[in-house]
Amino acid sequence: MLELAILGFLYDAPLHGYELRKRITALTGHVRPVAESTLYPAIKRLEKAGLLARQTQPGSVAAPRHVLNLTAEGRSELRRRLTEPQQADITDENRWFTVLAFLRHVDDKAAQAGVLERRLAFLEEPASFFYDGERPLGAEDLDDPFRRGILTIARATSRAELAWLRTTLDSLR
Fold first, then answer.
1. pTM for the full model?
2. How many Å apart are CA 52 and CA 31, to the nearest integer?
3. Cα(87)–Cα(95) distance, integer angstroms
């Protein structure tokens, strides 16, 4: 998810590390804050792989700043990762939001639709956070008001996303 976010934000515009960290944190930070000790090794891996290039610019007040740019290989890798997301990128909500944030960078509407269809299929599968044996429990099956609340909120969120997915898929086809 972190590498995808780095590639996605740099596809939008060249950024220095601090600004990149702020943008990633704005996208995912409330759930998974990005520490410098995580971000900068990821940047170095992507740079070593030839997906990023670093330029040094003079700082206005302090030391020189390193601005990161996406290379042509980086742009290609971002589009590949977006059109071929891992299953966890489809099923994990935060990873899904990262894919969704940059899916516009895929020019092929059929490829965009393919990704959305995978999410739609996942959401249409019966699921719950709570089970009676193998049977998923719905909000109406629970006496616990807090667990019922979790399922009520999850159901409303899923319905909204399903409606959006279907509408968007219709427009892409």
1. 0.86
2. 26
3. 10
